[in-house]
Design goal:
single chain; 352 residues; alpha/beta; eight-stranded mixed β-sheet; 15 helices; 8 strands
């Protein structure tokens, strides 16, 4: 099996401004710089810290790097997606940054139950306290940091924009416009909750539809969606329809697998297959790669018994590591979220 190419081809700027090798990297041991602390992302990519990471990957191989455990799990479970598979699109021999993923801020219009203040400023300090956590501050890249990103666009093959909610920050539009000025071929992947797309973005996607891929984080439909994600289901569904009708772009759907939707993936699949504005997926396994590990009280493997896991119609193999504390926390925090949402979650039965 080939090595992961990201030490030679990729870079991520996370929602708090930290530079990492990959979006699923579990710590900042490999890279430990903040974008505000360096003068140039290009120079950093070609500097000593990246070179040390390359030597470690070359000596050990990606499967023996602890920070790569998430990809290892996905590859071993034969899921259709992993960051390792993504890395194989890029050529490490050309010594150029080809994959850049960034987040301009953690500003978001949703407060998803499986999320936190690291990724959404809707998780206020008062909200985080109710879930036993300390809030991260709202983080927004300044203009100087945005310019550092714009300086790295020339050789890219894939630009990935995440959030927060990327369509809630107009500065992502600035980066996209700059990309079109300096790079004629780079594809753009926007990972969005799909609940809002301003006309400015609609227009640029209408004019360049083949350059864009929209990946919508849809964990359920109907009331289950509204409990998990916090915004009206009909609004999100209509926004994705409008995207298709205005631009011809079909959205790709990538759920976050948690205790709240694991028993209902077939409902999402049915909606996908019935919707012309969504990329058709014929297998449930295509919906299972993005699993919640943290918070543990939303993790299927920590909260469900093996008997419960085996009772679910599923295309994946999950091994119960049932933890009594996580189970009790799941009951506690589900009840907290019930009060916040104003209606109750039903993990096992239809919610409409």
């Amino acid at each position: 099996m080939n090595n992961c190419t990201f030490p030679w081809t990729g870079m991520v700027v996370d929602p708090q401004g930290w530079i990492t090798l990959c979006c699923v990297q579990s710590s900042n041991r490999l890279l430990s710089q903040h974008i505000s602390e360096i003068d140039s992302l290009f120079d950093f990519f070609n500097g000593k810290e990246y070179e040390a990471v390359r030597l470690e990957f070359k000596d050990k191989g990606w499967r023996n790097i602890p920070e790569c455990n998430s990809c290892k799990r996905n590859v071993d479970k034969d899921f259709s997606w992993s960051q390792y598979e993504c890395s194989q699109q890029f050529d490490p021999s050309i010594n150029k940054l080809q994959y850049l993923e960034f987040t301009t801020s953690n500003v978001c219009n949703q407060m998803c139950v499986t999320c936190s203040s690291q990724f959404s400023n809707q998780w206020t300090s008062a909200m985080e306290i109710q879930f036993g956590r300390t809030a991260n501050k709202t983080h927004i890249l300044n203009d100087n940091d945005i310019n550092k990103i714009c300086e790295c666009l020339t050789d890219l093959k894939l630009l990935v924009i995440k959030g927060g909610e990327p369509f809630a920050d107009i500065r992502n539009y600035k980066v996209i416009k700059k990309l079109f000025e300096v790079n004629d071929t780079c594809r753009i992947l926007i990972v969005t909750n799909g609940s809002l797309i301003p006309e400015k973005y609609m227009d640029i996607m209408f004019r360049n539809p083949k350059r864009f891929q929209i990946s919508a984080s849809i964990d359920a439909i109907g009331k289950r969606y509204e409990w998990i994600r916090s915004t009206p289901w009909e609004k999100t569904d209509n926004t994705l329809k409008e995207l298709y009708y205005q631009t011809g772009i079909q959205s790709d759907i990538n759920p976050v697998l948690s205790i709240y939707n694991a028993a209902h993936l077939s409902t999402i699949l049915n909606w996908i297959q019935e919707s012309e504005y969504i990329v058709n997926k014929s297998k449930l396994s295509d919906l299972c790669a993005n699993q919640v590990y943290n918070p543990a009280w939303a993790n299927v493997e920590c909260v469900f018994t093996q008997e419960q896991i085996d009772s679910i119609q599923k295309p994946f193999t999950l091994q119960s590591n049932f933890n009594e504390r996580d189970y009790k926390d799941s009951i506690k925090y589900t009840q907290v979220m019930n009060k916040i949402r104003g209606f109750d979650m039903d993990i096992w039965n239809d919610m409409g």
